[in-house]
Design goal:
CATH superfamily of the largest domain: membrane protein fhac: a member of the omp85/tpsb transporter family
Helix content: 10-25%
Largest sheet: 16 strands, antiparallel, barrel
Shape: elongated
CATH class of the largest domain: Mainly Beta
CATH architecture of the largest domain: Beta Barrel
Number of domains: 4
Distance between the termini: 89 Å
Number of helices: 6
CATH topology of the largest domain: Porin
Structural class: alpha+beta
């Protein structure tokens, strides 16, 4: 067909201008407003496609726009159903082409009308009273009870919690065979039905270890806390894994089982490890008000002679104390919580006019449990003491010491609630003419109270006594001096003790107490007020309480908690700064 040339303007107006108008409308865009209650508005704004579209992407009038409207209504209905709204009213007002209104009335939120939980498998046995009690307990622990608002997230969480409650103990292959939520939109009520199949009881079999390369083949078994033939409990596997993770010989540890019902009678315990680098050289810098600036170097070998022996050696040089030590730690034998070690050490210190030179060799046994740490130590040591303006003493002693620490705190590095209790019992036998036999008792208790959200009150008390006729011939480690950080602030480190010449030496009795209040103004920074008092004396009647008080700052640095305190000691009539900081690299 041919059209007269004179009619081209008519066709231009009829075809091109409507297209241009549509393009112009699309370019101007359409604004979308949401009118919905605040309970559901954030959910709809986040997930409804229409509310997150670019305005220019909305199609022109036609099938595509109709499809978009239908899809939007479906999206809104599905989202509201996840929140328990099953009878919503959804309307999209499109009277104004440049301004749409999405209006949502969710209706009544559904609530749970009934919960029916049934069990299959071994747990369903009526002959076992313990199993019946456990079934009742699982029903009581169900987290979406009758009359609770129904939400899809809560429904999923309740199902997962029931399945996991079965899997973490005895029934590693437990599963949910039926889960159904029957909704009555007219009454806004939901009936829940769950059928759980426990499967068989799992019992632990032998260890299957993979990943060992240079360590002894039985090394992992030495840490084993599991009982072959015992009933499977996930927490027991995690405890075993945690013990292995604390061993310096491993960088990665995973302990698991294959929940195959066919192997339930003796399921192998799969232990996958990755050995750590056996040798490590470290350096560090530090400073403290107690012993001055510090530089140190350490060497560690965690698989000496490929026997799993751990060698730890170090040199520490401080302004007022220097030490050189080497310790060899043996892997466990019969109890994974027990570590035996042997060590030698040299130490020199010059504090408050007293120079001490010590050489020692000894053996130790350390026992770590969940909340306790116990240590037995036997040492032979030679000590030389040189008090300023007094005679030098030299003596050799065989010493024994038993100590135990009980910890029940919320955070070991930054406790805000709980307590720590320590007790030590020890003594020694003289091996030279100047040395004397003695006994020693020491105790320390510290309690942390949380006051409100950001306040912590810490109370500490310690006391000790050396049982001997005289302090002469007793190693300084078994006598007492007070003062400095972690003691009586306001006084120099170890400046409270017995006088000898112009020096301060260890005394036979100790008693100190402290109260500290910390206000945390930020998660990692706080301000402290404190008061300390106490003394160390050679006789009970010579005790004179020395008190210091002041304020300080606290910082939870990446390297550990740091404290800076400014204390005032009335006896000395001067302020004293106490601090400690260390950096390892």
């Amino acid at each position: 067909m041919r059209f007269p040339i004179q009619h081209w303007r008519v066709w231009l107006l009829a075809v091109v201008l409507p297209l241009a108008s549509a393009v112009a409308w699309a370019q101007e865009g359409t604004a979308i407003d949401l009118d919905a209650p605040k309970e559901v508005a954030p959910l709809l704004k986040q997930y409804v496609h229409l509310l997150n579209m670019e305005a220019t992407a909305i199609p022109a009038d036609g099938p595509d726009r109709a499809a978009l409207v239908r899809r939007t209504r479906g999206e809104v209905a599905d989202l509201l159903a996840t929140e328990g709204y099953f009878s919503p009213q959804i309307r999209i007002d499109r009277n104004d082409e440049a301004h749409w209104h999405l209006m949502v009335e969710p209706g009544t939120r559904a609530t749970v009308e009934a919960v029916d939980i049934e069990f299959q498998g071994e747990i369903a046995s009526d002959a076992d009273e313990a199993q019946a009690a456990w079934r009742d307990e699982l029903r009581r622990q169900w987290t979406l009870p009758v009359d609770a608002p129904f939400r899809q997230a809560d429904w999923n969480a309740a199902k997962d919690a029931l399945r996991e409650a079965l899997r973490i103990e005895r029934y590693a292959a437990a599963k949910l065979v039926t889960t159904r939520a029957d909704v009555d939109p007219d009454t806004a009520r939901v009936r829940l039905t769950v059928v759980a199949d426990s499967g068989p009881t799992f019992r632990l079999g032998k260890l299957e270890v993979s990943g060992l390369a240079t360590l002894p083949p039985d090394f992992v078994a030495r840490f084993d806390t599991l009982k072959e033939g015992g009933v499977y409990k996930r927490r027991d596997l995690l405890a075993f894994q945690e013990i292995l993770q604390t061993a310096a010989q491993f960088s990665v540890v995973v302990v698991s089982i294959d929940p195959d019902p066919a192997r339930a009678d003796a399921v192998p315990v799969q232990v996958t490890v990755r050995e750590a680098q056996p040798q490590r050289l470290g350096f560090g810098l530090g400073a403290s008000s107690n012993t001055g600036y510090r530089v140190e170097s350490t060497y560690r070998h965690v698989n000496l002679l490929q026997r799993g022996w751990e060698l730890s050696s170090g040199l520490r040089l401080e302004q007022r104390r220097q030490a050189l030590f080497t310790d060899l730690f043996l892997p466990p034998r019969d109890d994974p919580y027990v570590r035996d070690s042997v060590g030698v050490g040299l130490e020199r210190s010059d504090l408050e006019g007293l120079k001490i030179y010590t050489e020692a060799v000894g053996v130790a046994r350390n026992i770590r449990r969940e909340h306790t740490e116990t240590q037995f130590t036997v040492r032979v040591q030679h000590e030389e003491t040189r008090p300023d303006d007094a005679e030098t003493s030299r003596y050799s002693t065989l010493t024994l010491n038993w100590g135990r620490v009980w910890r029940a705190v919320d955070n070991v590095l930054n406790p805000r609630r709980g307590h720590v209790f320590e007790i030590q019992l020890g003594g020694g036998v003289g091996l030279s003419s100047q040395a004397h036999d003695f006994g020693r008792l020491y105790g320390r208790y510290q309690h942390y109270f949380t006051l409100g959200k950001d306040n912590v009150l810490a109370l500490r008390g310690e006391a000790g006594a050396t049982l001997a006729e005289t302090r002469d011939g007793v190693p300084q480690d078994f006598l007492f001096r007070a003062g400095g950080t972690q003691s009586v602030r306001g006084y120099a480190y170890r400046s409270l003790g017995a006088p000898e010449g112009t020096a301060t030496v260890g005394a036979r009795y100790l008693a100190t107490a402290s109260a500290e209040y910390v206000r945390w103004i930020k998660p990692t920074a706080g301000l402290a007020l404190f008061v300390d008092t106490g003394d160390a004396a050679d006789a009970r009647e010579a005790f004179k309480l020395h008190t210091g008080y002041g304020l300080g700052g606290r910082w939870l640095s990446p390297a550990g908690p740091l404290a800076i305190d400014l204390a005032w000691a009335p006896h000395e009539k001067r302020p004293r700064l106490h601090f400690g900081i260390a950096v390892a690299f």
